[in-house]
Structures are given as C-alpha cells and as structure tokens.
Amino acid sequence: MQAAASPKVAEPPFDGQNYGADIILRTSDAVDFYVHKAILSIASTYFKDLFAIPQPNDATDDHPKSLDAIPVSEDSQTIDYILRLCHYPVDEPVTAGLKGVTAALSAAIKYDLKRALRELKAKKILREHIDTYPLQVYFLASQYGWDDLADEAVNECITLPSLTSHDSYTRHMEDATAESYYSLLKEYHSATFPHPSYRPQATVGKKQKKKGKRK
After folding, report:
1. Are 133 and 104 within 8 A, CB to CB?
2. Could you read off the pLDDT tens digit of each residue along the chain, which spans 215 residues?
3. Beta-strand pair 69-71/8-9
4. Structure pTM?
5. Which segments of the chain does DSSP mark as H helices, in order?
6. How far apart are alpha carbons 173 and 133 in whole angstroms?
C-alpha cells in the first residue's frame, strides 16, 4: 500500500517556525499552515476553545519540534484567505473570485472569525462582484443579513432579462429564504411593469410591514 504523501508547507508567512509558530493547521489538500495559538485565540472563540483541549502529538520527520497538527476541512486557498483577514500583520489576501469569497465567508462563520467577516464586508470584497454576479451577491448578502449590500445588488438584478429562466439559477438560491426570494421577485416585477406611482425603495433586505387590504 502506497504511503500518503507528506503535507506541503504553506506560503510565507505561514511556512515554518521562524516566527514562533506553535500549532499547525492542516488543510484538506494537505498543506500545513504554521500559526500561533495566541493570535487565533484572540480572533476566534472556536479556536480558543479548541486549543484548550489536549491535542494528539503528530511528530514526523518534517516537524522535528513535534507541533500538533489540527486537520481542517477547508482547502489551502480558503485558509490562507481567512488567516490574512485575522489579526495577522501580513499582506491582505489576493482578491479571490466569487467562489473563493463564498468559501471564505463560510469558513469565517464556522470558526467565528468576526474580524474576517467585518473585513469581507467593509473592504467591499463582495461589492466587486455585483456587476458580474448580482444574483449571487444578493442571495449571499441576504443570507448574512447585510441589507445595504442586498439593496445594492437588487438594483443590478432588476436589469437582468429574467429571474425565472434556467440561465438565472444560482446555487446560492438553495440557501435563500422564501422571504428574500419573494422580495427580489417583487422588486423585479415592480421595475419591469411599474405602476405610475411606483418609486424604487431600498427595503429589499429588510422585513416589510404588512399593509392593510384596500377596499
């Protein structure tokens, strides 16, 4: 039986113990990130609680100081991305495609990386994709409760040829609530077949107050 290949080492600055790293995050594609318990504990209550649990020793020839290696389900691109959005004083992550940003969002939620979530929104990383992927950004923003971003995205969504054709389907719809989808369709219909008194309102991402029935 062929032995498993040794893990690769991540790109700088997560490439070794020269910076006093004391723990390893091993990704799903077998890349080792040398990181610091103190920094991750500040950035994430998930890691703070995890590091309080004794870890099995994972000594190998590649790791003579026998640092513990914690396996994570994310790939190396996602882990590199979110680590650079934490408390590490390193270069910001290279702007990823929408798929990469979506994976980073999921990981930030999973590991309770509040600063990473703030950075993903504050640095307008998702806004960079509104013109190209308005539907995807709308449903992502709605999912995370970012009403202002959802409102920006819907202004692009209403310019699309259709919201019900096969071509308009995106997998982000699978995580959407019926309310967010209904709100989008309502705005789209109002913009496509406007009533003379219709005025666009930035309320798509917010719950609508029920209006009384007209007599």
Report:
1. no
2. 455 678 999 988 899 767 789 999 999 999 999 999 999 999 999 999 998 887 665 445 555 456 889 999 999 999 998 898 886 666 777 666 888 888 888 898 899 988 887 777 655 678 888 888 999 999 988 888 888 889 999 999 999 888 876 667 787 888 788 899 899 989 988 887 765 555 555 555 554 444 444 44
3. unpaired
4. 0.69
5. 37-43, 45-51, 76-83, 98-110, 114-122, 134-143, 147-157, 178-192
6. 13
Residue 76 token pair: 């190396």
Cβ–Cβ under 8 Å, residues 135 and 157: yes
> Which tokens go with 53?
């649990």
Taking residue 52's Cβ as centre, other Cβ atoms within 10 Å add up to 9
- For 46, the token pair is 């998930």
- How is residue 94 written in tokens? 């290279």
Tokens matching residue 75: 């790939």
Query: What angle do helix axes 134-143 and 98-110 make, rounded to 10 degrees?
Result: 10
- For the chain, the distance separating the N- and C-terminal CA atoms, rounded to the nearest angstrom, is 78
